[in-house]
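Quick one: Toll/interleukin-1 receptor domain-containing protein from Luteolibacter soli, structure tokens please.
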Amino acid sequence: MTKIFISYSHADEKLKQELDKHLKILEHSGLIAPWHDRMLRAGDDFALEIDANLNTADVVLLLISHHFIASHYCFGIEMRRALEREKAGEARVIPVILDHCVWQIAPFKHLTALPTDAKPIMMFANINEGLADVVRGIQKLADKTGTSQPTVNLPPPPPDSPIVDLPRSSNLRVKVAATEHQKDQFVIDTFDYIARFFEGSLEELPDRNPGANLETRFQRIDLVTFTAVVYSSGKNVSECLITKGNAMLGDIAYSRDLRSRGNSVNDALALEERDGSLSFKSVMGGFYLGRQKAEGLGMEGAARYFWDTFMEPLQR
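--- reply ---
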């Protein structure tokens, strides 16, 4: 059984919990024994227990995000000890990329990251796809490092059992449709991603334009509404209100006027499904990045489409 230590920032608790659920299949199969600090019991010595588990793990997962990199304990203590053990050949270290951040210059840049091609989990149209990809990568490693499992050899067919090579059609594809729950969840997850995308971008905007005298404001009104405003020298130069769930206007609606309260929109994204794959398209027939039609957009594409619309008044 492969002992796994999970190092993560508590700001990424929600994603870590989802990863826990996906890892259960390997745990139930006896392939892995995961450990993280939420398993500490009342009265345990925090530092001693973490050190003990980190120093005996076969595999260390680093859940990488800007929160992880900003954490002194994660980046400065747990990661560095994990890399010392990796260099000594005592453990394998796997970076798991949760979201966009500049990890390619970090001390673990030489390690192969998960998901495949280091695509951040938050960039998957459905984060469960990314988490499942991580589990498959860990399974391969656990199969190599853990105790091998017994194999079951099935008896061969009786000698008198003919093996018939029957003709078959090449037309065997069956339509796969997303459930209503999957559709609703995709809209919710995309709206939440757009909100976080705007919040992070607004925070960064003044620093990227030091001579423009910019100030920004992001406000989450409720679970289905947020606003964004940019001021230049104290003057409002761009504002928007983004809402989720207005079926008449689109699944996620964009308004340039905060006073509209979602009653009128300038653009909106509608959910579309193609062979079970979910994405968004512009109701108004807009163009993504000014070139291609805004359709087939995943979470990041939807966020960038609205952000580009929001930035237009500042870039004329």
